[in-house]
Amino acid sequence: MMKVAKGKKIVVFLDYDGTLSPIVDDPNSAFMSDEMRAAVREVAKCFPTAIISGRSREKVKEFVQLSNVYYAGSHGMDIMAPPRPVMDKKGTEVLFQPAKSFLPAIQKILTELEEETAKIKGAMVEDNRFCVSVHFRHVKDEDYQILEEKVRSVLENYAGFHLCWGKKVMEIRPTIEWDKGHAVEYFLETLGLSNSDVLPVYIGEDRTDEDAFKVLINQSH
Predict the structure, then answer these.
(1) Is 209 an active-site residue?
(2) pTM of the predicted model, to two decimals?
């Protein structure tokens, strides 16, 4: 890896859950350790660093508590990044939200899911801003099928959304051509690092991180 990196600018991309923090029973308790925070802080001093999470951007920023990294939430659908270098070389960070028009529907879906799943013990609905997560880690096996049916019944009323699965979680997301891979491309462009002299390093363990891996593999060929 050191040989490949020689003479190149390194940029670091990180997932959050399962990468910077352990996978835990309660999603609201996925805290990163002080040691991990210190390590990320030191990395970000040396290389541009972005955290791309399925969580809401505000939530992951609250967990990480670092001001020297960039944040993208909702699997890259909510990005706080530098201004595009071609347009504005100076200025504050700018917000990019490709699924913004879906927000009103997402709030309706969130309310309906909370109502529909309220009686299923162990089910937890999480508002991740541009996607809605239904955690079933604590749902009994015999209740899972009922839960999935209720989630699908809500989804049937919203044509512009689809269902995805993660680790013990179902997610309802807007059907747009945007994922963590697109978020990586966006960051590289806005950071002015989309040329061959750059070595992007992406660390993640979730299925959604594979979208980013594919983009970076294609770029390296």
Answers:
(1) no
(2) 0.87
